[in-house]
TrEMBL record:
One of its GO terms (molecular function) is inorganic diphosphate phosphatase activity. This is Haloacid dehalogenase-like hydrolase domain-containing protein 2. Its EC number is 3.6.1.1. It comes from Dendroctonus ponderosae. CDD domains: HAD_PPase. The keyword Protein transport does not apply. Belongs to the HAD-like hydrolase superfamily. It is an enzyme of class 3 (hydrolase).
Length: 263
């Protein structure tokens, strides 16, 4: 039985300011089913508000409260542990961390890294390294290897996280996908992981992460997908589709067949 769908955003529904062909209509069709739909994203370049505005401008009908962002999960972690972080965050994402940055006259006890190209320079990385050497906690909002942008594949924050781990001889706390709790937290109380499907373009963070958390993992061949990705994990993805459109249509077909069978 399928009760809930989790959907990745960047690379699955859109690539920057371009919707995946047919995705807007496919999401509308899926939303007409008796399903609970949530959106889970590792996007750290922009705040939840900006991200929601982008989706709306592309034609998607998405409730902002149904978006689970790794930025929000990271903020919760910072507040829960009373941390005073150095924030290596993109300018468009800083509003989600308002009031949390370490005061200028104090020393950070945490370093938080998101996808922030303006922060990945020697001076800032060296500053972070020194805080980590002095005992600060390293927090990775996510550690993605790469992502699909309008001009091609681009480096994710993962290599910078790994570099700081290596040099400071520490281990990062990973907040977003593929963290098991990140997949389970959006599920409604009456939904078991086995009754949910995660749809995404990242075979490791989206699909394997979801399957490790007990969900079904649907891989789509858009965004960061590269030929042969489906063979890089074991067990293999629950299903592989050319795009979100095909995945949505398959789910609707399965629900329709189930309804006919039950009646």
């Amino acid at each position: 039985m399928i009760k809930q769908i989790l959907i990745d955003l960047s690379g699955t529904l859109h690539i920057e300011n371009q919707a995946i062909p047919g995705a807007v209509e496919a999401l509308k069709r899926l939303a007409q089913q008796n399903l609970k739909i949530k959106f889970v994203t590792n996007t750290t370049k922009e705040s939840k508000r900006i991200l929601h505005d982008r989706l709306t401008n592309l034609g998607f009908t998405v409730n902002k409260n149904d978006i689970l962002s790794s930025l929000g999960a990271c903020r919760n972690l910072i507040e829960k542990n009373n941390l005073k972080p150095m924030l290596m965050i993109a300018p468009d994402a800083l509003e989600d961390f308002e009031g949390l940055a370490c005061p200028r006259n104090e020393t950070p006890n945490a370093v938080v890294i998101g996808l922030a190209p303006t922060e990945f320079n020697y001076a800032r990385l060296n500053e972070a390294f020194r805080y980590l050497q002095n005992g600060a906690q390293l927090i990775a909002i996510h550690a993605g290897k790469y992502y699909k942008s309008s001009d091609g594949m681009s480096l994710g924050p993962g290599c910078f996280v790994k570099g700081l781990e290596y040099s400071a001889q520490c281990s990062a706390t990973l907040v977003g996908k593929p963290n098991k709790l990140f997949f389970q937290s959006p599920l409604d109380e009456d939904v078991k992981p086995a009754e949910a499907i995660m749809i995404g373009d990242d075979v490791t963070d989206d699909v394997k992460g979801a399957m490790d958390a007990g969900l079904r993992g649907y891989l789509v061949k858009t965004g960061k997908y590269r030929e042969g990705d489906e063979s890089k994990i074991s067990p293999a993805p629950t299903a592989v589709f050319s795009s979100f459109v095909e995945a949505a249509d398959k789910i609707i077909e399965q629900l329709t067949q189930k309804t006919v069978y039950c009646t």
